[in-house]
Write a structure and sequence with these properties.
- With 174 residues, the chain is mainly α.
- The protein has helices at 7-26, 31-59, 62-76, 79-94, 96-117, 132-143, 146-154, 157-173.
- Helix 1 (7-26) runs antiparallel to helix 2 (31-59).
- The protein is globular.
């Protein structure tokens, strides 16, 4: 595996950051405080997304992982479609802070579920994975990948991101 750290604690910290920062944003008394909270919230969201991908990688073979990621991305595509309707309704009914309160509640529920049910999936860690030399080698491998270059040249950013994840998972099998 390529993880230097166990996945479960990173995911839990990410969920906690996400929920706590959303609550801090809802309670912010100034624009700089709101922006700082949203920045921290984005870091928490990134932790969760990266951990979700690692969990899929750990639990599924390359072809099945590509299918799982494809389904997950399809569900994630609903957020920008449904989100503005729910957010507009909450804002109209309760004000802008309600949106961040709802996000904090969703994050807290996700954290609660993860604490209760999320197993550790990274059983074979690589402590060298975050060593600068290993990171550079990994980035060079990606940049030299024909799959990466072709997907970047011929598709939109969102589609290329989806294709890249699926293709790299399938390429890893070969």
């Amino acid at each position: 595996q390529t993880c230097a750290l166990p996945i479960c604690p990173v995911a839990l910290v990410g969920c906690g950051l996400y929920a706590t920062a959303a609550l801090a944003g809802a309670l912010a008394v100034s624009l700089p405080a709101l922006l700082a909270a949203r920045l921290v919230q984005s870091v928490g969201a990134c932790c969760v997304v990266i951990c979700a991908r690692a969990i899929v990688r750990d639990c599924h073979g390359p072809e099945q992982a590509a299918q799982v990621m494809s389904r997950a991305l399809a569900w994630m595509a609903l957020a920008p479609i449904v989100g503005p309707f729910i957010g507009g309704w909450l804002q109209e009914l309760l004000g802008w802070r309600a949106n961040l309160g709802a996000i904090a509640l969703a994050g807290a529920l996700l954290l609660w579920g993860a604490v209760r049910r999320l197993p550790e999936t990274s059983l074979h860690r690589n402590p060298q994975a975050t060593h600068p030399r290993a990171l550079v080698a990994t980035y060079l491998r990606i940049l030299h990948s024909r799959v990466f270059i072709r997907s970047e040249e011929h598709t939109s950013e969102l589609q290329s991101h989806h294709d890249l994840v699926c293709r790299l998972l399938l390429e890893k099998k070969k």
